[in-house]
Amino acid sequence: MIRILIVIIHFQTIITLQLLEIDINQDVTIFNMTQKRLNQTIQLKIIKEEKFRYLLIELFVKLKSKSNSKLVLLQAYGQAPQYDLKAQKKRILCDKYDANGLQLSKKYHYLQLQLDQNSNLESYLTILTNKTLSYKLVFTASNIELCPNNCSNRGQCAQGKCQCEQGFIDEDCSQFAKFFLPQKQFTISISKLQYIYTIFNTTSDYRLRLTFDSKNQAESKINIQMLISQHHNLPCNFNHNYNHTVLDQKMVEIKLLYDNYLQSNVSNKFPQNFLIIKLESQEDINYKIKIDFQTNYFEKKEESVTIIIVVSFISFLIIIIILIFIYCFRRQNNRSQNKYQHKNPQQSDIQRDTECSICQETIQITQESLENCVKTDCEHIFHNECLNQWLNYQQTCPICREILM
């Protein structure tokens, strides 16, 4: 399913099919074609032999002008690539398409088919373009996965993936790039577009800091696009990118997150990853660039922040507990002090209040009983022990509710 095609090539109706049967009964089959319409669909009639397990389809655009045409190569089984009329947004249904060639407007496009799969279904190949062009179609059958464009003779092929020589990147090793070592300053000329890359082993997040130094008087805007991959892919809009724009004599610092898929796609303990940086400028400029590449930096920083937060929270809880303890201690101390501040009643007071309203027992008019009783400021009489127990829960008089403490 492709959505971005609609932005590049404006079709108003479903793709028109023009069928062309192709018998593939040898290792290499070549067709020179000229396409004058926006779309061309070819029905592939594949005669499969036992030794053939894969089919590499390559398209070489014959275009002498510097401006590349917009072209995409699509493949589908059972029926030709076509619009999904049920979708709200226009999109094309297919099984495979060359996203790399489309995004980078390349003159070379390719697809790899596995002949063991869907062998009972018809296979269709569609070429969409925005201008009349001539191209060469090359069909190569093989019992192993072949690499695109034979790695441009700048690398080695391993299970359908190019292992490019130093100084070259892209899926077919066709793009020149400058290899750099992290934490070392180097001078680079940005002639509109320049790729730089490095190789690293990591299983965690890391920090990347790019420092630009230029003697240019006028400010120059640089667009930066970065990709982390285990292959020599180029940064573009469809893959995992980090995009920034800076001016000269500026620094950009980025936190790049480690992706679990990098570790799952390799068997070794410390996977080898590529950091590919695309630098693009409006004019030709010379820069001194220093790239500070530190693994585990953010991991340690976040760990320190976590420790600080935990310690602060524990300290806060301890302070709260201490304050609560001080409050309770002072309250209890005040109650203890207030136990003895009331007066002892007289016999005349006992005659007026003959019983303790807390325990509801009669108060005896004896000297010992008077000493064991108290008279509050509100002129009520209680047993001293009863009132002390009452004050442990209430601060008011049991009869008139006047505050006693």
UniProtKB/TrEMBL annotation:
<dbReference type="GO" id="GO:0012505">
    <property type="term" value="C:endomembrane system"/>
</dbReference>
<feature type="domain" description="RING-type">
    <location>
        <begin position="356"/>
        <end position="401"/>
    </location>
</feature>
<keyword id="KW-0863">Zinc-finger</keyword>
<keyword id="KW-0732">Signal</keyword>
<keyword id="KW-0479">Metal-binding</keyword>
<feature type="transmembrane region" description="Helical">
    <location>
        <begin position="305"/>
        <end position="329"/>
    </location>
</feature>
<keyword id="KW-0472">Membrane</keyword>
<dbReference type="InterPro" id="IPR050731">
    <property type="entry name" value="HRD1_E3_ubiq-ligases"/>
</dbReference>
<protein>
    <recommendedName>
        <fullName>RING-type domain-containing protein</fullName>
    </recommendedName>
</protein>
<dbReference type="InterPro" id="IPR001841">
    <property type="entry name" value="Znf_RING"/>
</dbReference>
<dbReference type="Pfam" id="PF23106">
    <property type="entry name" value="EGF_Teneurin"/>
</dbReference>
<keyword id="KW-0862">Zinc</keyword>
<dbReference type="GO" id="GO:0061630">
    <property type="term" value="F:ubiquitin protein ligase activity"/>
</dbReference>
<keyword id="KW-0812">Transmembrane</keyword>
<dbReference type="InterPro" id="IPR000742">
    <property type="entry name" value="EGF"/>
</dbReference>
<keyword id="KW-1133">Transmembrane helix</keyword>
<dbReference type="Pfam" id="PF13639">
    <property type="entry name" value="zf-RING_2"/>
</dbReference>
<dbReference type="GO" id="GO:0043161">
    <property type="term" value="P:proteasome-mediated ubiquitin-dependent protein catabolic process"/>
</dbReference>
<feature type="signal peptide">
    <location>
        <begin position="1"/>
        <end position="16"/>
    </location>
</feature>
<dbReference type="GO" id="GO:0008270">
    <property type="term" value="F:zinc ion binding"/>
</dbReference>
<keyword id="KW-0325">Glycoprotein</keyword>
